[in-house]
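Quick one, tokens below. Sequence please?
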């Protein structure tokens, strides 16, 4: 097994991040029978409008980034991954970085969108394809973005999952890929924290990760991201990310 990279935290964000910002929009049930490409276009238009709705507030993301920048001890760095279509996190991250240079606490300023994004340009060949919840896993193609992300995943040993369920086929693909890497790379013996305020969902996510990576250590944090951040990311302290315990 390769030497573990004990200086990188991979944050995996699902809809919980967007919901926490007030972006609660979901694909309407009446769109179920709409042809796929037409549905994708409708989703893109709707989400772009929803992202600028008055009820959407990114204050929580800004405080989150501020805390990471303030608290993270060298040589630790953070990498962000999401299954969301919106780009709230990417937009705020770029706004937060002075002169668009990558600060010492970040691995990259890029937020990896594993299921595609509504951010323009939509047809960039390097990006992951736009995937719907009902899409079979065969709909996914390994884009340059996805391959780049997997390169980071395989050598990472610390992961934080926020509001991601791994329920649908497209998201389970993520765990399937990690499972294939598990025996030969540090991710196989990695440490995971799952942040979810719902007890049942939290237990289900932990169980799915444990099944994919039986040698990994998986712990649950039954709180929202904002609540957990307000406690100083307490369960991350033993990792040394924020200095001595």
């Amino acid at each position: 097994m390769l030497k573990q990279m004990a200086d990188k935290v991979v944050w995996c964000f699902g809809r919980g991040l967007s919901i926490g910002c007030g972006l609660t929009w979901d694909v309407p049930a009446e769109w179920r029978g709409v042809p796929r490409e037409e549905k994708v276009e409708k989703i893109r238009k709707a989400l772009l409008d929803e992202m600028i709705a008055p009820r959407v507030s990114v204050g929580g993301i800004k405080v989150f980034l501020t805390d990471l920048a303030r608290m993270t001890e060298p040589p630790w760095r953070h990498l962000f991954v999401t299954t969301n279509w919106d780009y709230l996190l990417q937009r705020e991250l770029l706004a937060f970085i002075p002169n668009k240079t990558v600060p010492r606490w970040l691995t990259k300023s890029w937020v990896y969108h594993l299921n595609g994004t509504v951010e323009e340009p939509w047809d960039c060949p390097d990006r992951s394809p736009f995937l719907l919840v009902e899409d079979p896993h065969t709909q996914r193609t390994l884009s340059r973005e996805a391959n780049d992300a997997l390169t980071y995943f395989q050598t990472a040993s610390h992961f934080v999952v926020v509001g991601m369920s791994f329920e649908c086929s497209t998201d389970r693909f993520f765990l399937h890929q990690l499972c294939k890497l598990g025996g030969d790379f540090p991710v196989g013996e990695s440490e995971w924290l799952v942040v979810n305020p719902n007890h049942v969902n939290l237990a289900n996510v932990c169980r799915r990760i444990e099944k994919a990576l039986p040698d990994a250590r998986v712990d649950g944090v039954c709180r929202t991201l904002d609540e957990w951040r307000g406690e100083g990311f307490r369960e991350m302290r033993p990792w040394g990310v924020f200095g001595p315990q």
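The chain has one domain: 5-239. Residues 5-239 form a domain with the Rossmann fold fold (CATH 3.40.50.1220).
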